[in-house]
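In the laboratory, one determines a bound structure by crystallizing the protein with its ligand and collecting diffraction data. In a computational setting the workflow is compressed into a single prediction: the sequence and the ligand go in, and a structural description comes out. We illustrate the idea with manganese (II) ion.
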Amino acid sequence: MNLNNEPLETAAKALRSKTRFLVVGHVNPDGDCLGCVCALGIALQRLGKSVVAVSPDGVPETYQFLPLSESVVQSVADGTPFDVAIIVDCEGLDRTGPVEQSIRSCDFLIEIDHHPGGGRESSVCLVNPSAAATGEILLQLFKVAGIRIDGDIATCLLVAIVTDTGSFRFSNVQSSTFRTAAELVEAGASPSEIARNVYETRSYSSTKLLGLALSTIRTTADGRIAWASISQQQMAESSASGAETEGIVNYVRAVRGTEVGLLFREATNNATHVSLRSRDGLDISQVARLFGGGGHSMAAGCTVERPLTDAEGLVLDAVRKWMGF
Ligand code: AMP
Ligand code: MN
Ligand code: MN
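The predicted complex, in structure-token form:
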């Protein structure tokens, strides 16, 4: 896991020399982007900088234990001046939703990301697709910038790594991932506290939703593709929030014999969010890209501007074709 030193040093210099920072994660946030937003917010505050930390869809309850999360806002007032915008885990500016314009009006953009398509529009590009989480790259940057990794920063970065590796279960895990995690634990992060907050504390609504979603599971006759769907009615029945669908798709992929697992989520505006997961190196992001989405080779997503049943048909057909049957 190595990034060229030059962009790291340019970014480190910007952290030290500039004053007003805008830090933004992606829509539909996960532990990696929120861990990075909070870690950067803490680090910049400690350097005495002015920082606005933004998560366009807020901070889901699960991640509200993260230090600094209470200061994360959902939007920035038009015209607020910044010297530097930093986007984390975004694979492009359009994943920042309504905050995109504020980022574009800033002259200096740092992109920190581990998605293969990230970094196209930045002044400084810290993109390394072999990193398990964006948090790993951020740790490298902090070291180059001489920022001390205290317990709070370590907690944020370990949350980023734990969540994006599915608790060290996914194929993005390498020996270096464990070394980084060990370093963060030595710096004060508590794996049991993180696990208790992220995995061992489930809301009633998300547990109910998990049951409703899993009861819809179907597979193709040969079992190679499995999918489940969440309708707006099920969202209402469980009183769950959109964020509480995180992780459900992993149950779908875990069905024995499944090569591709899909989760369809009906949105309110006749659109459908699709989570795509594969295994054994099958690059399912190719299918997500056909629908204007993106992501990693084995964990990708897209939004199809069609109602749930239509979207299911379209994406299933595309996956079938792509798998050669
Ligand atoms: P999800 O299935 O939402 O957990 O997302 C899996 C991966 O796909 C993440 O890396 C996301 O950043 C990416 N992703 C999800 N939805 C989209 C989208 N509409 N466009 C681009 N990338 C997406
Ligand atoms: Mn993410
Ligand atoms: Mn990530």
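The two ends are 36 Å apart (CA to CA). Keep in mind that any predicted model is a hypothesis to be tested, not a measurement.
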